[in-house]
Give the backbone structure.
Amino acid sequence: MFKKILIANRGEIAMRVIRTCKEMGIKSVAVYSTADAESLHVRFADEAVCIGPAPSSESYLKMSNIIAAAEITNADAIHPGYGFLSENAKFSKICEEHEIKFIGASAEMIDRMGDKASAKSTMIQAGVPCVPGSEGIIPDFKTCIKVARETGYPVMLKASAGGGGKGMRAVWKEEDLQNAWESARQESKAAFGNDDMYMEKLIEEPRHIEIQIVGDSNGRACHLSERDCSVQRRHQKLTEETPSPFMTDELREKMGEAAVKAAEYIKYEGAGTVEFLVDKHRNFYFMEMNTRIQVEHPITEQVVDYDLIREQILVAAGVPISGKNYIPQLHSIECRINAEDPYKDFRPSPGKITNLHLPGGHGVRVDTHVYSGYTIPPNYDSMIAKLITTAQTREEAINKMKRALDEFVVEGIKTTVPFHRQLMDHPDYVSGNYTTKFMEDFEMAELED
Ligand code: MV4
């Protein structure tokens, strides 16, 4: 078992990993930029190393500085969290070359799943349902027209190096195809330095339902059921829940089986997430596979009583998984609390938290790194806390979320707490009748004076 793990991340996920390390008797090393000198993960870790100035490119993305920090503290493993270097194949490789265990996927696996067209062809080989469309990358516009005609409009053009919606275009009729083809490729080239495109039949008003999987070094995998992540704004998840209100026992069985089949086919090691699009007829299709722990992992932990970070560490240390699948025994909802102003188009609101009261009580979990007096630096993403409520039923979990949001006091900055409080009263949310289109029509009710 590892003696010391360096956490190559910051904020609430760094706190999350340090906590499990402490429970497992593993020493923890925090790394921080000069902007994070007063951050909580620095204080909670056993050791802390400053790896550079505020900009991520000079600190949390600076591979040489992170490896150097691991060397001087004699860490035998690195946990990358999510974002930053968590799905960077080069970093995974460099860790391997320095004989520091990367608690995540191998460089080959990251490359294979990071290239969306190659991930999809792998899934087709594995027998996982995929959206009909092109066989891999589309070489030129002539082929693009041909594939669109074969697929049948509407179609979705997608960047193979993409994800999160960048370089993606819905095309409803042939006359719009050329502009979409050219603008999507330009956007993808600019964002990823790669303009390879593939095409799929457009799935209208889909739900985003993902399956948590864990694979071990013996090639076995299990699933821990689904998370419904359909409530998104500009491809940013706002809130997630498990079980999905759209799920049936039969659909869960089929999606779970497909996700395990995918993981075992590629011999996936560690925690991963297979993302699916689900249409209104409950047909499901592979969308992407993420080779990292995800922001929303706590709702799964809550309903199956399982520490996913602990499992990542055990699997990385070669410990086999139990192999059984997990079905939710409770209902859990996560609201992402961001330092943004929902009354001003969710624009960022960094600054000093002058007063903070975190909600608590039975079935309430808050994963956060902030404290009263903490100044949120403008350099990193805006999430300051994850508020998770868990109860026997969805109704009770929503009720508990309302109570917790009403208790949540943050002064000195604006946050998305008011947005979530209104969401919990929205009829389409409360009825569970929402898709990825939900936020397009959502309007904040004006602030009472
Ligand atoms: C789609 C789709 C409809 N049809 N693919 C968005 C980013 C990336 N995860 C893939 N996405 C989509 N792919 C086909 N064939 C609709 C989306 C989509 C979406 C998916 C999940 C969650 C939110 C979304 C918001 C807009 C579009």
In short: Residues 131, 156, 164-165, 168, 200-203, 206, 208, 232, 235, 277, 287-288, 436 surround MV4 (CB under 6 Å). The two ends are 57 Å apart (CA to CA). The longest helix spans residues 249-265. The longest strand covers residues 207-215.
